[in-house]
Specification:
The C terminus is likely disordered. The protein has a single domain, classed as 60s Ribosomal Protein L30, Chain: A. By secondary structure, the chain is α+β, with helices and mostly antiparallel strands. The protein contains 3 helices and 6 strands; from the N terminus they run E-H-E-E-H-E-H-E-E. It comes from Pseudomonas violetae. Pfam families: Ribonuc_L-PSP (PF01042). InterPro entries: RutC-like_sf (IPR035959), YjgF/YER057c/UK114 (IPR006175), YjgH-like (IPR038743).
Length: 136
């Protein structure tokens, strides 16, 4: 098996190593990003829901940026929400701060009962930028 081409965001590698997973892996022109939550620097949940969602997007942005991507490169998005019926409106009013213009990526929303103390998680697949090494 080939070694995985792992992408770590700046200053958070120890957190991922401690939790034993990769934040993102490059493969065949795509970036597969693990679910991102609104964790503070020490990995604990941000207690305010709006701020937790913003932090999840900021954590996602750090990974996308480390791979040379932006939100415009996202193709597929999955969000996980604890008790979506009561939290959806709060979460969705934060989205425009980060979401780009149409056409938007595909989206799947999943209601869950537990996210390790978090209320929101976002997982994405993005297209990596072209390398520029194409024949003329």
């Amino acid at each position: 098996m080939n070694p995985r081409d792992v992408v770590f965001p700046p200053e958070r590698q120890a957190l991922y190593e401690r939790n034993r997973y990769s934040p993102a892996i490059k493969s065949n022109g795509f970036l597969f990003v693990s679910g991102q939550v609104g964790s503070t620097e020490d990995g604990s949940p941000e207690p305010d829901l709006e701020e937790q969602v913003r932090l999840a997007f900021n954590n996602l942005n750090a990974i996308l940026g480390a791979a040379g991507c932006t939100f415009d490169d996202m193709i597929d998005v999955t969000v996980f929400i604890v008790d979506p019926e009561s939290k959806f409106d709060t979460i969705w009013k934060v989205l425009p701060e980060f979401w780009g213009e149409a056409p938007h990526p595909t989206l799947t929303g999943v209601g869950v009962t537990w996210l390790y103390g978090f209320e929101f998680e976002i997982k994405v697949i993005a297209k990596l930028p072209e390398s520029g090494n194409h024949p003329i």
